[in-house]
Amino acid sequence: MKRGLRLTKKQKKTEQTPPPQPKATRTSRYAPAPQAVPDAADEDETDELDEASTGWQQTTVKLAGLTKMVTVVVWILVLAGPLLAFFAIAVASSSRATTAAETQSRTGSAPSATGPSGFAELYVAAYLAAGEGTEDDLLPYYSEPVTFANEPGSRSASRVVTVAAQQVEKGYWSVTVAARVSAKNKAGKMTDRGMHYYRVGVQVSGTPEAGGTVEPSKPARTPAPAGPSGSAPGSAPAAASPAPTGSASPTASGGPVPLYAATSLPAEVNAPASASHGELDYGSESSSSRNDAVSDTVTRFISAYLTGQGELNRYVSPGLQVTAISPAPYESTLVTGLQDDAPEEADDETVPQDGTRRHVLVSVSAATGGQDYLLSYALTLTTRDGRWEVASFDSAPALSPDQTGPVADETESTPDASSDESSDASADTAGE
């Protein structure tokens, strides 16, 4: 019994004793104690916990691929930057070149008559004022020697304006100038001789903008001076006539200097053919006693506009920017006639529904300084809130669709008395 009891206690002692630790080898006696290796299931659980806590679920391979892709994109942008800039500059240059070519093409097809017209006006004014002993005054315009028999200053032009300019051939113009001429009578007193018309041939050397045909990139060849030996000091060379006053010297683009020269003395010609305007797109003219809403609005508007009396904004539609003329040029106004395009069945006493439009041509007598002066205005009216308002100033009276141009006057024009008198006076002066 005792032996059996001892064996039982020994077994219990053996079961309670922990298993012996492995002995450290000579090379690893300083190494830390080995740790237990977690199972595969524990590793998966650890990764899931890390992903849940950080929110980053990309693997190392994916991150490396994304980095390479970003690097490639950055390098593409860096290399493509200069190419894109060069492409943008090339497109802009091409656009400017196309625009310049189109402008030059348009200019070449329609040369400007401004330069030849201005030159002809100056030439005619100098011609009318010149006389015996002052022939050199024409050298800046006409290079041929001239001998006048009339007294210098026996004629003058108070107003000169071009009425027609035609290109006879490239770089060569025929310009007709109207001049208000005053001339001395036999008593030596200057009198008004009416309007006279002179035709001048003008040759141009310059770009199309100056009336010539020379391309801006091709400089013009300046003619050699060939003036008479007795020309006045300071006068221009005969063949190289200067440009009209105020014209450009070399163009801003480095083009040639525009040169003008008259090919002969002025030729006096008849006045241009008279004409009457085409039919207008209005009804028959009403009398000045017309009393309706349209006439009332127009009368008050014209009075406020020309005399400054009354509130102008009360008679205009919203959006129309118009102010009274300042200082007021007239003291009072009177509407003497009114035409509109109202239908025949329209009731002038009743204002139609809002938005109705009507075109009006109004004749006005405006008074100032004891004198009455006639004016006319083309207006467009519209209705709003039961009244007529001025919606716009028309740039010109409306023409009927059937009449879009001037109509030749069939009546024969009678000679102007002032022109006949001027011709007689010129003959007397030449005879002296």
Model description:
The chain has 432 residues and is α+β, with helices and mostly antiparallel strands. The protein is built from six helices and eleven strands. The strands form three sheets. Strands 1, 2, 3, 4 and 5 form a five-stranded antiparallel β-sheet that branches. Strands 7-8-9-10 form a four-stranded antiparallel β-sheet, covered by helices on one side. A hairpin with a 2-residue loop joins β8 and β9. The longest helix is centred in the first third of the chain and has 50 residues, at 60-109. It is flat.
Helical stretch count?
6
Largest sheet: 5 strands, antiparallel
What is the residue-mean pLDDT, rounded to a whole number? 75
Q: Return Rg in Å.
A: 49 Å
Shape type: flat
Tags for this entry?
about 425 residues; alpha+beta; five-stranded antiparallel beta sheet; four-stranded antiparallel beta sheet; 6 helices; 11 strands; about 20% strand; flat; disordered C terminus
Question: What's this entry about, in short?
Answer:
The chain is 29% helix and 22% strand. It is α+β, with helices and mostly antiparallel strands and 432 residues long.
